[in-house]
Amino acid sequence: MNKTFAQKVDSSIWGYPSRNTCGCRCKDGLDDKQSSSFLDESSIHGLKYLGQANSCWQARIFWAAATSVAFMCGVYLIYQVFAKSVASPVLVSFASEPTPIWEIPFPALTVCNMNKVRASKAKEVIEHAASHPDNVTLQQEMEFIKEVCDGTVDIIDDEHSHSEAKSSATLDLSDDQVHHFLNSISHSCEEMIVQCHFEGAERDCKEIFIPVITDDGQCCGFNVMPEHLMFRNKDGHGTKEEKKRWSNWDMQDGYNHKPNKGKPDCGQDKNGHSVHKRSAEGECKNEDGNPPKWKEEEMPRRAVAPGLHMGLSITLNTQVEESYCTGFQSTGFKGLLHVPASQPEMVEYGFAISPGSENFYGLDPQLIHADPSLHKIAPTKRQCYLQDERSLQFYQHYTLLNCLMECEANVTYNHCACNMYYQPRTEDHPLCTTSQLDCYHTSVKYVEESAFAGADDEYQDANCECLPSCTAYEFPAQASSSKITTAAKLHLPARITDKFPQLRNDSFVQDNIAILHVYFSHLHFMRNERDELYGMLDIISNIGGLLGLCMGFSMLSAVEALYFGAKYVLSLLTLKKKE
Known about the structure:
17% strand, single chain, six-stranded mixed β-sheet
């Protein structure tokens, strides 16, 4: 390219004739319409000073430096935005409006008697095992009692101590046998829970509480998902009606319809008359005075109003005389409020309920709801799992507690060749005997210490990778309690005191009875939203805003750059043809 061609290109782009070394101006530029200057016409701040023909070279250097510094500042700030979106890609913020309590489930409540095994049943098993040393079932049941008691069984009678010393039966038990043994040796829900009220109505405790197997023995659960819905390998059990009742709620999206609390099944004869009695308040009662069953009640249950009388109230009986073994240094109950789809871990997270006390738990629920846009962010970055991202081997629904429980089960089996009675397992996995309890405790300790950080060389096969759920429920409570002084203040109906006459005794009530109230404190709560920090619109807005702040750059500025760039290329092509 010769000097004349370069001068013509300079003239066509910058809009003024270039000077040669002799100081004369070139005359071969394009016409005025084709030579409109990008620097003079650009909306980007500072560029017009670079293109002024009458500007001195010092001014041009100053504006070139200022424009370059502004451009570099804009690029640096944009880099910081991208760096923040990569380092902390998730934003948790308050929802724009409060959420009513009926949009979340009433918390599942699991209640355990601190005494895991009834003394009368333990004594019976030990006596029968001593009389029938060759009976495998009795030997297994006695070994199972020791496992439930975590190897710390107190010998009731010295004359039967040889039975326990000889007990070396293996525990190759099926799930049905585990349930049978636990139902036999544990406190039944009917005996442990004397009276129940929910949402202002007395309810049949056997209907709203179900037996739940936990790490603290067999307990009683309210609003807890049944085993055949919670576990994958038990999906074939249960009725269609029960599955249908639980089908309107999931962890991620919540409920898909308005509250449906059901109604008491009062029953009617062919003339449409009720076949049940009604109380003075108009409540439906069975012929024996017990509260009726309810029909068309959705699961999990939810509260439609706050306050003590619209929550759950239960009266508990410790049965201190049946004390045999416990994992604690006291008597009474342990309770846990948790998500309905989660298996409770009572030993680590349960709270104590003391006999002789009335306990009030006012709940202020917390909900973090995850936006589907989080799928674009890796779970390790956002530090949580969406429901469709992590599939567990045993559990239908992912929760942090379910993941930890499954991890403990896998590690225990891999290193002890057995599982505890409450851990999820397949039918070919035997239960741990008392000689394997030390191995079990070592496995659980490892999981508790390193489930989140990753496995070491010894436990790489555990593959825990447990993270919280992106959509998570929590039920923090304000707790208070008062002392029960007399039996008369319990105001129990005659049908209950006739069934349990000891409930009329003040001393028995003070040593055995506890009352628990669980209720929502407010009608609404503020929900949190877990969303990506910067979506595509946010990124474009940030880039445009920063470039506009530093250089006055806008979308039309980009159009201008494209326009003048195309014009430059056309000028080159046109002049090259002329040459």
